[in-house]
Amino acid sequence: MESNDVQNDDQETTVVEEATESPTDSGFNSNESESPSSSRCSSFSEAGSAISDDFATITDDLDNLNLTDDDLESALKDDIDLVIIKDDDEKNSVTFGKTMTVTDVISRSVGEDLNADDYDLMIDGRVLPRTITLRDAGVTGGTKVRLVEREMQIFIRRVDGRTTTIQIRPSNTIMAIKEQFFHTDQVPVHQQRLLFQSNELENTRTVVSYNIRVGSTLEMVYRLRGGCLTGKF
């Protein structure tokens, strides 16, 4: 009887030891049973940390730009106010859309009586490409831009066939051309008569009003006493 009781006690002890065996002793690895949700949380945490670092870098870059509140407000607006400075230093503040091209700005600035192709828009001595928008050019509100009239080359031909090349602007008057011709060829202004396409040009009118373009040729004939002209064209 006693041997049977000892055997039963040994069996119970074995059962208890097996029941209390630790997960580590049984080969159980907690890492191997990590749930998918825990893995996703870890990935989200890493991504959030990376975004936070990038945001901090962007914030530092903006601080280094020393942008004012006016600069930030201008960047958010669709319209901007530009100060247009013309050749005579006349200044006008005009509102434009950021998506307008440089050509659009020139056309609105010169008006209907002048040709936009005869002008350039400049910032700090730099000519802006005509096809880009104000946004692409980096133009902000309050920027001062200069509207510059292009020079063009024309020719003045005398009766004897001699030709003189001069540089003019479309807004120049015919009188201004005569004065320039006097300085180059010493022909007194009161003796000059200029013709274009067989029409005599009036002193007070401008080059653009006669549609005189780059490379055009004006004919110069002498005014004789009594108002007669020499030469025939």
From TrEMBL:
Residue ranges of coiled coil: none
InterPro entries linked: Ubiquitin-like_dom, Ubiquitin-like_domsf, Ubiquitin_dom, Ubiquitin_ubiquitin-like
UniProt xrefs under SUPFAM superfamilies: Ubiquitin-like
UniProt-annotated stretches for the region Disordered: 1-46
Domain Ubiquitin-like, first and last residues per copy: 152-223
Biased composition (Low complexity): 26-46
Name of the protein described by the UniProt record: Ubiquitin-like domain-containing protein
UniProt organism field: Chironomus riparius
